[in-house]
Each structure stands twice: as structure tokens, then as C-alpha cells.
Amino acid sequence: QVQLAESGGGLVQAGGSLRLSCAASGGTFSRYVMGWFRQAPGKEREAVAAISWSGVPTYYGDSVKGRFTISRDNAKNTVYLQMNSLKPEDTAVYYCAADRNRAWSAPRGANEYDYWGQGTQVTVSS
Q1: What b-and-e string marks burial along 45-61, b requiring 16 or more CB atoms within 10 Å of the CB?
Q2: Which of 4, 34, 85, 92 is positioned for an S-S bond with 79, CB 3.0–4.6 A?
Q3: Are 116 and 97 in contact (CB under 8 A)?
Q4: Span 71-92, mean pLDDT?
Q5: How far, in Å, CA of 92 to CA of 39, rounded?
Q6: Contact predicate 23/120, CB 8 Å
Q7: Could you give the CA distance from residue 78 to residue 104 in angstroms, rounded to a whole number?
Q8: Residue pLDDT, tens place only, 2-60
């Protein structure tokens, strides 16, 4: 059973930066497509970014393109989300997810991912 644990969330002012991490255990991390999603109160879960098992290619949602960067370190079983130029509308719980299907396609819906972390809160103040 794969377990995912997010960290790095917190409170930041608009324009600031945060880096989220998601550490995986219990599976073969290097074989998985990894994704980041977010969910704000009263809204549906939104795909933020995804990265193939090798690190390339990547996918970004329109609302974060040019501001967020997804990366992974397969030696550390960790995927990252660097978030720059944060806006109040980026406030949400951020989740990482793993998909055992290595074939690349994007965007992937939330229902295509097999494993989920418990989420980390990101709050951006104006």
C-alpha cells in the first residue's frame, strides 16, 4: 500500500512563495505519475500539476501556469510543488496523488489516481 504525506503548507502573504513536498512510501515511486490537486471550500477538487514518472513531461492547470513548478526526486521518493507569486485565490487544501498507470496523458482527472495524501493547507492573505 502506497502512503503519501504532504508537507510545507502554511500562511503566506500574496506575492510570496511556498514549496510543498510529498513523500511516498510503500510502493515503487519511480513508476508512478504524480499529481498535485487543490480544493477550496465549496469548490471542486482542481488539478494543479502533474509529472510523468521520468520527470518529463509535465502538466499545469491554466490558473497556475508560469507561477508553479512541479518536480520530483525519484531517489528520495518525493515530489515537489514550488509555488511562486501566490494569490489569495490559491488558498486551498493541496493534495498529492499517485497513479500506477505510467502512460502519460494530461490533464488527468482525480478519479484516475490510485493513492492520495491527506492534504496540506495553503492560505494566502491579501
Answers
A1: bbbbbbbbbeeeebbbb
A2: 34
A3: yes
A4: 98
A5: 5
A6: no
A7: 19
A8: 999 999 999 999 999 999 999 999 989 999 999 999 999 999 999 999 999 999 999 99
The Cα 58–Cα 89 span in angstroms is: 22
Q: Are 75 and 57 in contact (CB under 8 A)?
A: no
User: Residue 1 burial by CB count (10 A; 0-12/13-18/19+): exposed, middle or buried?
Assistant: exposed
In our burial notation (b when 16+ CB lie closer than 10 A, e otherwise), range 74-95 reads beebbbbbebeebeeebbbbbb
Q: Which three cell numbers stand for residue 20?
A: 510543498
Cell numbers found for residue 89: 485565490
What residue type is assigned to position 24 of the chain?
A: A
